[in-house]
Amino acid sequence: MTFLDLSPMSFQSRCFMVLGAVSAALSVALSAAAAHVPALQEGGASFAASLDQQQLHSLGLVLVGVVLERRHTLWLAAAGWLMVAGLLLFCLNIDARVLWGFEGTRALVPWGGSAFIVSWLALAVGVLKPQRV
């Protein structure tokens, strides 16, 4: 398999890459909207932090998909799903609060941040841990 040959990829790897790419595109669109829509500018530092984290972890999710394809371990799969959880619990929660005034799941935001932290640790373990043959 060459680096650019994506046809034999696993479903899970493709899923992480597609989710990461769509999330990255959404974060760019929201960043552009925030620069031009006064109501979004009122979201302030929390909205900016959400967008920063979304951009970083969207790329992280794409990275996990690439690494998972080369080295399939449960640690790497866990890293991807933890990043997805972080995007939903942290970024989506803050975005929903700023965009629609939804406060119902505000208490889950720290769990999303924790999922982000653990996802990077799981990625490190997945890369360092010897792979079974």
Give structural notes:
Helices cover 78% and strands 0% of the residues. The chain is mainly α. The chain has one domain. The radius of gyration is 16 Å and the shape is elongated.
List keywords for this structure.
78% helix; 5 helices; mainly alpha; 133 residues
The SS-based structural class is: mainly alpha
Poorly predicted spans: none
The span between the termini is 19 Å
- How many DSSP E strands? 0
Q: Number of helical runs?
A: 5
C-alpha Rg (nearest Å) = 16 Å
Shape: elongated
Strand content: under 5%
Domains, number? 1
- Helical residue percent? over 70%
Major pleated sheet: none
Outline the fold blueprint.
Blueprint: H1 11-36, H2 38-41, H3 44-70, H4 74-100, H5 109-128
Helix pairs in contact: 1-3, 1-4, 3-4, 3-5, 4-5
Give a short synopsis of this structure.
The protein has 133 residues and is mainly α. Helix content is 78%, strand content 0%.
